[in-house]
Amino acid sequence: MIASAMQTGSAAIRNHARAFAANVSGTPKAGPLPSASVLRRLIGKRKARSDLFGADVFGDPAWDMLLELALSEAEGRRISVSSLCIASGVPVTTALRKIGLLEERGLIVRAADGTDRRRAMLRLTRRSREGIADYFAAPEGSRRDMF
């Protein structure tokens, strides 16, 4: 029963991507992203859960990356590829694969850093921003309680 309830890496990413696609294709649009304090609290809870039970059990680096990018936007700061890799809590090679997948799916975009050409910055796309906002705007007892 527990094994059937847990999803692993790519399956979880596909589910989040499908949820975003479904959320942003409907007519109702959610408001802004959650506040920085809400995002910080959620990220902290997700990290605590991973610390307690192991990241290999509950790891979902793509969702963690989207949350980190939402937080950076809410705080008015930019985030580099290397910083997002570190924040994901997975090996760099895994993080880079997830970043590539998120870019492929149109959920994030990469742009050169104007001050340091060696560094690339990442940000949410309108599609992912709306999907995250819709996710958090969902009524109590629905999908938002599954994070």
Automatic annotation (TrEMBL):
This is HTH marR-type domain-containing protein. InterPro entries: Tscrpt_reg_MarR-type_CS, WH-like_DNA-bd_sf, WH_DNA-bd_sf. It comes from the Bacteria. It comes from Qipengyuania atrilutea. SUPFAM superfamilies: Winged helix' DNA-binding domain (SSF46785).
